[in-house]
Write a structure and sequence with these properties.
This protein is mainly alpha-helical. Helix content is about 65%, strand content about 5%. Strand 1 and strand 2 form a beta hairpin. Helix 2 packs across helix 8. The longest helix is centred in the first third of the chain and has 28 residues.
Length: about 250
């Protein structure tokens, strides 16, 4: 999906949420989730989308050999290390940023375009930083929680951070449309496949799946912004990747 299309979709969703809030369609059971009515509706939409996506991810997970899946994950992980390095520098974490740059250089060369994670074997720890975390580090409040179509849970701050992350995504800047869409699709399915093991745990543990994922996401993001100093209490069996929790 092109960046401009994503921006338009985000703007429409934001306007819809505002209207719902003004007309009283939102609920305030959780102070962090004042637009719960809208968010639950979007959660239902995403659950419907996952009815199609999940079988594709399951087929990919079953058919693709483990080395292939590892290579795909490493390739996209190497691309994300570029933006992680930038955000570490913005957060004043110079040593982590230098390490991230080293990871990209090593994995892009010795690791053959990032297909092999040689840097980790050399002691260069992988980090995960995005612009929402950078804003949080500089004191920007998280704001109300939203559950957006396709991109999933985000705070208001992380929604703006996601827009910046999208602009910096090298995949979305590929001019060849078929190549760009293919890479974006493979990355999306690979991510969903990596989260398959948690599905049954969530279904069994969560009386209200929406609340469970919302609370997990908010706690997980708080822990990320505090560099792990805040624990994700009671949610150790939930994974959150690229803003999506399962």
């Amino acid at each position: 999906m092109k960046i401009q299309t994503l921006k338009r979709a985000l703007a429409v969703s934001s306007l819809t949420a505002t209207v719902l809030g003004l007309t009283g369609c939102a609920t305030a059971n959780n102070p962090k989730d004042p637009f719960e009515g809208f968010n639950r509706a979007m959660f239902t939409v995403n659950e419907g989308i996952d009815v199609v996506v999940k079988p594709v991810a399951q087929g990919y997970d079953a058919a693709a050999p483990a080395p292939v899946k590892a290579g795909i994950g490493n390739f996209f992980g190497n691309l994300s290390d570029i933006w992680t390095a930038f955000n570490n520098f913005l957060q004043g974490k110079g040593s982590e940023g230098v390490s991230d740059v080293g990871r990209v250089l090593v994995n892009s060369t010795i690791g053959i375009a990032g297909l092999f994670d040689v840097a980790t074997d050399m002691g260069m720890e992988k980090h995960a930083e995005d612009f929402g975390q950078t804003l949080g580090k500089w004191g920007v409040g998280d704001g109300p929680y939203f559950y957006w179509p396709i991109i999933g849970p985000r705070t208001t701050r992380d929604t703006f951070g996601w827009v910046a992350d999208s602009y910096a995504d090298p995949v979305l800047h590929i001019h060849d449309v078929p190549v760009r869409n293919t890479l974006a699709g493979i990355r999306f399915i690979d991510l969903r496949a990596s989260l398959l093991p948690t599905d049954k745990i969530i279904e069994q543990a969560a009386f209200d799946k929406y609340n469970y994922i919302r609370d997990a996401y908010l706690q997980h993001r708080r822990a990320e912004i505090n560099d792990g100093q805040a624990s994700v209490e009671g949610r150790g069996d939930v994974e959150c990747k690229q803003g999506r929790c399962y």
